[in-house]
Amino acid sequence: MDKKRIVFCDFDGTITQNDNIVAIMKHFNPPGWEELVQQLMDGKLSIRQTVGRMFAMLPTSRQAEIVDYAIHNATIRSGFGAFVDYCKEREITLLVTSGGIDFFIYPLLAPFPIPREHIYSNASSFAGDTIEILWPNGCDEHCDNDCGMCKTTIIRSYDPARYHRILIGDSVTDFAGAKLVDTVFARSHLIGLCEELELPFYPFETFYDVMKHLEAMDKHETDIGG
């Protein structure tokens, strides 16, 4: 029986052109956020700790301003809408797996017919004095990276015997998942990481590139089978 194809697609820097969390921090510039990023890079803080502490620096009194900036500053990568349609037409399951935050991910994805249950991200609360990040998609027993939103946990929940698993991403947060899946589409930092471990990947800049590679893969399989 043919495996069903499933896509795990990153959001920040992949579906969008830029990293939205970094853009928010640079724009509102709370004192100390850059030091937190450096501690993350040095391995002293986890992704969950870093993101949680950065947003805790932003007052909820500026909620409307922060949300408005996050939504209007982001640009969707070329071809994404066509890719969503492509997946639907070919019965490819498309999951958005993001370490981003719900308050900008949901509005930015609202124009596209992606079921809410297919969008995995971190959540947020504006009930207190500062923004609190919530973590509904934590690590399973196989991951101790304290990811916050654990992409490998989601990938592992789909049996590789039944699914051809495809990852689309751009950064270090996608690297662990890239080691697990059957096919990797990479751009930016993820390319260098894959090259270091000689991990096979297809480079892309737009989602038209992704569709072109998938079409070529389909043709190859058809030629072999025929």
Automatic annotation (TrEMBL):
One example GO MF annotation: 2-hydroxy-3-keto-5-methylthiopentenyl-1-phosphate phosphatase activity
Name a biological process GO annotation.
Answer: L-methionine salvage from methylthioadenosine
Domain of life, source organism: Bacteria
Copy the pathway line from the protein's UniProt record.
Amino-acid biosynthesis; L-methionine biosynthesis via salvage pathway; L-methionine from S-methyl-5-thio-alpha-D-ribose 1-phosphate: step 4/6
Q: Name one Pfam family in it.
A: HAD
Entry keywords, A to Z? Amino-acid biosynthesis, Hydrolase, Methionine biosynthesis
Give me the reactions it catalyses.
2-hydroxy-5-methylsulfanyl-3-oxopent-1-enyl phosphate + H2O = 1,2-dihydroxy-5-(methylsulfanyl)pent-1-en-3-one + phosphate
Per the UniProt entry, the Enzyme Commission number(s) are: 3.1.3.87
> HAMAP family annotated for this entry?
Salvage_MtnX
What is this protein for, i.e. what is its function? Dephosphorylates 2-hydroxy-3-keto-5-methylthiopentenyl-1-phosphate (HK-MTPenyl-1-P) yielding 1,2-dihydroxy-3-keto-5-methylthiopentene (DHK-MTPene).
Q: What family is this? A: Belongs to the HAD-like hydrolase superfamily. MtnX family.
Q: What is the designated name of this protein?
A: 2-hydroxy-3-keto-5-methylthiopentenyl-1-phosphate phosphatase
Species this protein is from: Paenibacillus athensensis
Which lineage?
Answer: Bacteria, Bacillati, Bacillota, Bacilli, Bacillales
Gene name linked to the record: mtnX
